[in-house]
Amino acid sequence: MLPPVFTLFSGKGLKSPVSFKRGLGCLALAVALAGCEKEVDIEVRGHTPRLAVQYNLNTDSPKQNMYIGRSQSVLAGDNLWRNGLVKDASITISEGNGSVRQSFVFVPLEYNAEQGNYKPLTAFTPEPGREYTLRVSAPNFEAIEGKLTMPTAVPVVSTSFQPDAKHDPYNFSGLLRVQFNDPVGQRNYYRLFVQLLDDQGRPVGNAYSRNENDDIFGEEVEKIELYKVFDDGWANQGVITFSDKIGTYTGGGAPATQLEVTLQHITSDLYLYERSKDNYEEDNPFAEPLNLHSNIRNGYGNFGGITVTKYRINL
């Protein structure tokens, strides 16, 4: 940028109007950049480190590991992925009457004792409709707590899969339709998963949306996307229908013989947490920063509940 500006003032070399205009443009840019420099002092509030947890009670997963982390100031230099683990926490999950249903113990990784997870001492399957409380305490931290009521089971009324004309057990696509009755008189929140099973019922692959249905099924389809949370605020007459062209992929092992549809009825706090997380992760340059939704008292994270209904379709 400096050579054209020097040439402009030295009177040398600018033999055309284009070069002259280019020199003026460089000069204006240099002046503008110089005028943009300004130091701004930002006051950063003091931060008290707090415990953080993200854990979901799931009727389909009675023994899940848990990770307990901590928060830190934005100016702190610690790498929380490496150094944010809290290894001396006490953890319990209790019913509404106070009886402890599950407790956890920290187990380090075999190849790195500084990392690990909290493993449950016993298996525990939460019951739909019951209240549960998660409590976590650790030295030098304020104890945290999260509460929830497990959602009711929502049965899948009907499912169908119409494969495309050309397909094979390892790579195929088609139209998947799932219908279930949405409980009336309350706001409900859901998530749909689809995976492929072999003739022994073992997972061998997954499905994904083909996004080819916008002009076929209309407005309703836009409300539901596989693997993402959605609510029933738009549902008509207590019935929700998912219709979508899906594709599939397998790991190349045994061929798929069934599609397994998993309907998750989730708590409102888990729905809000997942939605706020999606807003962070979406590639939207105009999205404003926001805090992740949390239902953890005195801490950060989320304690969610998932009640699962499964349905299998023979291929």
UniProtKB/TrEMBL annotation:
InterPro entries linked: DUF4249
Protein name: DUF4249 domain-containing protein
